[in-house]
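>> received
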Amino acid sequence: MSTREARIARVVHLRDQRLKLAVKALEEARALERRALAELSAAQSSRQGAELARRELARTGTDIRSFIEAEEWLRSRFIEEELCSLRVQRARMQVDRGQQRVKEAALKLRQLELLQERLRQARRAKESRAERSSEDEIGQRVAQRERQKGQL
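>> returned
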């Protein structure tokens, strides 16, 4: 293996490691997205429960203090739901960025692997030509000896 092939093999190894790290980061981003979606779902359920409780208080006509507390609770549930929605958006952006990094890393790795294979093929062709050349030279020497024996 030539020094160039050895350097390319080292770079291929490094790019392979980068690809694995990018895949790992993507998996973590997806896990974060799943957690954010679960939190959003819980926040939506909580908001819906607060809406039902407030409607029930409005229908039964209980004291105003209970209605105000229910309204504040509902408002806090809306805020929580919005925050969860923002977390989901950020998580999705991280997933998108992670997917892009994985694609780029895989492409760079594949390009290097193709270069490495072309170098191997070129080395094999060169070795094959050298082997044929030496066989031809040996054949010419043998033929020349045979001619010299025939002339003597």
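>> The radius of gyration is 36 Å.
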